[in-house]
Design goal:
single chain, alpha/beta, Rossmann fold, 2 domains, nine-stranded mixed beta sheet, eight-stranded mixed beta sheet, elongated
Length: 426
């Protein structure tokens, strides 16, 4: 691009470097922001291989702007306002990607992406950023973090907005050297976008660009020929830096534990572990939520006795399983129920204590005593979910059986097979 001296005929071109790590595209409705955004991504896709450059799209116009770019092998994932269930996962996953890159650079003993090996540049391309931030205000922190740390880590922001004032925080704007200004309502708006004085306003099909070098360039905004996209199309090379949500029980496939924990913050799945030495467990959830199967998975591989009455509590056992406690207690007289709960409490406090695993459709009765470990399965209300101590963000009244919350995180059981059911069960 050439600095203004009359009119430049250069086309829009921005390099991805540590000197020009992030770009802001601003313009009123119909000014051509979508064309500029698409042109930038296509130019990088032509310049870099999919192992050198990738992009994540966030398009809160229903995916209309970035939809044509999905066929590029550089495309990782596109989030839209039509599929917002994955947006929080993506925000956490992108934060985890920054940490992963920091650890990788330490391992390689390098300070920046320019000296790293095997680490692609990753652009976060956001159209209608004002709508994205309106629906997900916590994403402000992510954008500020990327704007600050992404320069050296090779994570780049490309943000399209009608006007950044009142939308983007100063912590974001201060770290975006590349400003691309299309037609605005007033010259004052143009100056605010560019962050420097100018006497020209962008003409139709053109934009004013500053690269943070003190110069303002007047350039053409190119249109992307669909044939270019066809020429560049191919299979995606890399999955997103966040895992898809676990929604149903999964195969064990040789893993230990009783299921998988969905650790969104670290973009990974972890094995859900429990051992008798961890103490008693309560499994709470509505009927049909998978309580019995959860008990089976927990005691898989351990010697356990399933009891249905006070008489069976006297058996010599290391682990006692009480399935459907509330139904069992409701079937007893008040005197029988009190005696049953007293017998359970004595066993739990014996020396050595007997480990008790119990399932219930409601929080355990006070007479049962506190239980440190609680598996929360599907409940019909948020209040019932929170009463178990589970965080509100794991509440899902439509989750499948065997999906719930364990130690503050969402988890799924291992799918039951005939060979895995080794617990003693009447």
């Amino acid at each position: 691009m050439t600095a203004i001296a009359g009119i430049s005929q250069a086309r829009l071109s921005v390099s991805l470097t540590s000197n020009t790590p992030h770009a802001l595209i601003a313009g009123r409705t119909g000014s051509g922001k979508s064309h500029a955004l698409t042109a930038l991504v296509v130019s990088w896709a032509r310049r870099f291989t999919p192992t050198e450059f990738q992009f994540v799209g966030i398009d809160f116009k229903g995916g209309a702007t970035l939809g044509p770019l999905r066929g590029l092998p550089h495309h990782v994932e596109t989030l839209t306002d039509l599929t917002t269930t994955n947006v929080l996962r993506a925000i956490a996953g992108l934060s985890a990607e920054l940490r992963r890159r920091e650890a990788e650079f330490v391992r390689q003993r390098v300070a920046s992406i320019e000296n790293a090996s095997g680490v692609p540049r990753l652009a976060i391309v956001v159209d209608e950023v004002h709508e994205f931030l309106r629906q997900f205000p916590d994403a402000h922190d992510l954008l500020a973090d990327i704007a600050r740390r992404g320069r050296s880590l090779g994570v780049h922001l490309v943000l399209a907005v009608q006007h950044p004032s009142g939308v983007l925080r100063d912590a974001v704007l201060a770290n975006i050297p590349v400003r691309i200004c299309l037609a605005m309502n007033t010259l004052h708006d143009v100056i605010q976008v560019l962050g420097r004085a100018t006497s020209l306003a962008p003409a139709r099909g053109r934009c004013l660009v500053t690269l943070g070098d003190g110069l303002v360039h007047d350039v053409l905004v190119p249109s992307v020929d669909p044939a270019q996209l066809t020429e560049l199309s191919g299979e995606r090379v890399h999955p997103p830096p966040w895992q898809p949500a676990l929604s149903t029980p999964v195969r064990r496939d040789g893993r230990t534990g009783f299921g998988l924990v969905d650790d969104v913050a670290h973009a990974c799945y972890r094995v859900a572990h429990w051992q008798p030495s961890d103490g008693d467990i309560a499994v709470v959830g509505d009927r049909g939520s998978g309580r019995t199967e959860t008990l089976r998975a927990l005691v898989d591989g351990h010697s356990a006795i399933w009891v249905t009455s006070e008489r069976e509590l006297h058996r010599d056992a290391r682990i006692i399983v009480i399935d459907d406690l509330d139904r069992m207690v409701d079937s007893m007289t008040p005197i029988e129920a009190s005696a049953f709960l007293d017998a359970v409490r004595r066993l739990r406090h014996a020396s050595p204590p007997v480990v008790v695993l119990v399932s219930s459709g409601h929080p355990l009765p006070r007479a049962f005593g506190p239980v440190r470990n609680i598996v929360t399965l599907r409940t019909s209300t948020l209040e019932a979910h929170r009463a178990t101590g589970a965080p509100p963000e794991t509440f899902d009244p439509f989750s499948a059986p065997g999906v719930g919350s364990w130690r503050g995180l969402r988890f799924v059981l291992y799918a039951r097979t005939d060979s895995s059911d080794t617990a003693s069960r009447p």
